């Protein structure tokens, strides 16, 4: 399920459920808006929401219930660690935690509701994948066709001191040239709150993990070399390379786990709809909106 579809479905469920609860708890003829002398009642709002997306939202709710029931029957367990891993993946797809939180806020979706939906997705994936058989011949064929992309990328370990302007950057570089401690200066000067407390340590990273100017400089340096100030959209960086990992060629043995998961993901996408339709036939489902 795509990142947008997950949040859209949850948002629609939340809105329709809220209006439905309100319609039951209060008079359906209660006016929720007026345009001149024309009134819009809660009942009209509820009917409009059902007409626009009620059927698809109800289908989604039914599917979630069916999946949860079957997961319980098969004793499928989902841990908080697994849910949080999916959540981190979703954050990455959105471009970070802040972007995901903004999407949730604009849709009126709580994090707890998103986690519940992610749990259902994981349950479904575990059940479908248990029915999929990946042959060794398929894996070898995939490896032969994708050797280059399966190769591990080279990595660099580096620390940096990030400052807002060139003048400060040159001042810090001059202190480093005189032998002052890099980690100490990072804690004193760096505006990168995520790394300054660790002396500017960024750990190991691949070239694509960093902005182009920073990555190009870091990957061109020797271990223990300290750069002149490097300008990026974030300010001026002074980089110290502290380690390097060369890119080994991919072998079938060290790629098997990654290949198997890739093939499982591909087959899951194609087999999930058929699996779900068969699963729904096992349960007594009554959809009163259809009738």
UniProtKB/TrEMBL annotation:
Keywords: Cell membrane, Isomerase, Lipoprotein, Membrane, Palmitate, Rotamase, Signal, Transmembrane, Transmembrane helix. One of its GO terms (biological process) is protein folding. It is an enzyme of class 5 (isomerase). PROSITE patterns: PPIC_PPIASE_1, PPIC_PPIASE_2. GO terms for molecular function: peptidyl-prolyl cis-trans isomerase activity. The keyword Cell membrane applies. It is found in: Cell membrane. GO terms for cellular component: plasma membrane. Pfam families: Rotamase_3 (PF13616), SurA_N_3 (PF13624). Its EC number is 5.2.1.8. It comes from the Bacteria. It catalyses: [protein]-peptidylproline (omega=180) = [protein]-peptidylproline (omega=0). Belongs to the PrsA family. This is Foldase protein PrsA. It comes from Priestia megaterium (strain ATCC 14581 / DSM 32 / CCUG 1817 / JCM 2506 / NBRC 15308 / NCIMB 9376 / NCTC 10342 / NRRL B-14308 / VKM B-512 / Ford 19). The gene is prsA1.
